[in-house]
Design a protein that fits this description.
The chain is of the alpha/beta class. It contains six helices and nine strands, in the order αβααβαβαβββββαβ. Helix 3 packs parallel to helix 4. The longest helix has 17 residues.
Amino acid sequence: MARGLDGALSSLDSAPANEARAMVLIGDGSPNCSDSAPNADGLFEVLDTSVHGIVGAAWSNDHIPTAVVGVALPDSYSQALKDGNPDNTNPVVEFNTLAEAGGRPRAGAAKFYDASDESELGAYLDEAVRVTLGCELILDDTPADPTATRVTVGGMNYAYSPNLNCSTGDGWVYTDGDNSRVRLCGAACEALLSAGSAQVDLDCP
């Protein structure tokens, strides 16, 4: 898992700076297969905690969010057996932690997209891509007055709300400390995906 994330980040590093970047992590068990594993047992039976660090650093350092999707994960702690799963770990706990670290946790107890079958997996993958990538815009300039920015999609003006819950609300929020990125939520996001573009006006009177 860690090696795959490293490869994805390497590819994203070469993307133009004005393009939104994101990752979707999919798994059916707790992370293992660490490059630092001393032997075959360590490769499969030991939790690879480097994955959490990679996902967290991508978000906190490079503003690259990761949506996390679990497939039929058991919500129980594994036993110390040679079964190909990290010992004494709960996959649901690990995936919740990864989702929080990736910057795109879901509302509710399950912070990741918890798919139990093929139909749910397909729907969650679509939603994960939309949430992580499709509705975040990088501004060419930083607004002098962040509250005077206007976002319009398809002729509709969507309101800025600094405390907006993007999982349940409509409108938009800034996603970084210097107000150089905005994320559209709810109906605004759906409109952007449908229209393909948005108009952002800074420092409107």
